[in-house]
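ARCHIVE CARD
Drawer: 12
Card no.: 0347
Subject: one protein chain, sequence and derived structure
Cross-reference: see card 0346
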Amino acid sequence: MLSLRRALLLLLPILALAAAEPAKPLLHPIFGEHMVFPHGRRAALWGWAPAGARVQVSLAGQQAEAVAGADGRWQAELGPVAAGGPYELVVAGPQQLVLKDVLAGEVLLCSGQSNMAMGLNGAEGGREEAAGAASAAASVRLLHLGMRIAGTPRDLPTPANPVQWRVPAADNLGGFSAVGWFTARSLQQRLKIPVGVVACAWGGTNIRAWMAEESLARLGLYGDERDLLRTLAAAEAAGAPPVPQQEREQVAAWWKEHDPGSAAGFERPAEPATGAWSDQELPGAWKHDGTTWLRRTVQLPAAAVGKPGRLLLGGLPDDSTVWVNGAEVGTGRGAEPRNYRIDARQLAAAPVTVAIRVWSEGGRSGGKGSPGDWRLESDAGTPPVALAGAWRRAATTGVQPVRPRLRLQGGNGAATMLYNGGIRPLAPFAFSGAVWYQGEQDAGNSDYQRMLAAMIGDWRALFGKDLPVVVVGLPGFHDAVATPVEERLNFGATRLAQAAAALALPGVGLAVITDLGDAKDVHPTRKRAVGERAAAALVALREGAGGGGPLIVKAERAGAAMRLTCQRVSGGGLELRAGEPSGFALKGADGAWHHARARLDGDTVVVESPEVPEPVAVRYGWANNPPCTLYDRAGFPAAPFGSDRR
């Protein structure tokens, strides 16, 4: 680890590259036209003005006043505002702002990793949903937050991605979080009031990236990354870029040395002198460990030449970097669809070459989605240029199995950096609830339960101690096993930790989606049901009832059987669905686990097996991709359970 002094010395030569933090606005940008303002309670508005300046705010006939402090920050409260609208939000101070088409209702924060970030176009039935959104859900409003890493807590979202609330429409919904949309849409249908959803997610991220540094310190976790965080904070204070330039140069040099494609400039428009190229249909799969290059040249319509646009690439299931006419336009991890803004300079000529470098491990990779997901769009309004079909592919050799990664880029393994740069800038907005869909990157993390509890505490410190939080359990993944229980758990262990946290923490719900997975794909597409279960769990938290999936809370010996008691049961009771194996297992005095059958006895589940006359423990759903047979009558599956592992 570099000393702080040495790190700063290394950064000094590149201070001239740093972008200055913009002046802080009169009103925080989370407040904007078309937004949903929190209803039914007092809610803060805030911003910045010269010290001592008076600022008046008004909405729906209510008014409040604040005075900017020595640091320029002012904060006022309005409410409770009745659900409905549209209203005008007026802010008067050194300047006057009038925000039109403001609704009042529920406002959700939807966060996590790639399954939360996946756009509606990547979800089952998502395109049809987007096509009908404008007429069906005008009272649902959308805000997508661009993310950035930060070494210190920030007051504002990233200036590179302007905050803009949107009314749902076919041309803006396809890339928006599918789970966020379906949750908000279902909640709006249940409550019959406006719903706003703020999507703040990043594929491939660990939970520690979303936690406050103080919480990780209390838990005694990730001390080395917290040291790195302080190095980044010092660099930021000195005005340096968020990712040290020398690290970028080191990684680029490694690629040039070890990947023939990088050295040959495979991303450039000119065809390199190599016989390694073959045809590859995209979307489509291939087999290779290491680096694969993909290239395709298309023609822009004349009206689109020299105009900015957007590149959409379905899904790439591995680490990838994308170039347009030799200029890098984005990087990504995980299978969420790629959606990159393209500068007019990269589209200055009719022929356009798109190049993709994919790093894959595990022997199989490929481009995902439907053909329509692969296209190049222009702001000129010309028809999209199709990118599905025949590409050129070159699989390079000699790449080392372990390559250097930027320690700070992306925030995937960087403690606290997305909390600082993504979550903290939204405080103290009065969210109605939060939906958290993450855990794939932490699969098998033995600290996940206490980290999840600490993260919820961090967010409640920002947005209110009573903030309702719904945790989306991980879906089934990997091939099913024939054994009664699967001892080597990764997804299963995280799922258990999520259920335990939901039971232990007040105001925390669980949306069980074990049955919505795909054994072969970590990014299952049935997002509508995920959102509906998350919305049901949110409503249940408000009403103190079930919703999202039953939780088994007690197991008692009943002769030669085990009797299970559940909480959070919806629809008036439990039901057992046919299936072999049942997902239930019993352990006898000899320590061996056996498949078991289950039956309902009133509001309890009785589990028994002729092979276990004296059961000492019972488990349900104890696998990475277990059978799901226990549901409630509302159709929600039960969470996994183990009487011997609580």
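Annotation on reverse: The mean pLDDT is 87. The domain at 254-395 is CATH 2.60.120.260 (Jelly Rolls).
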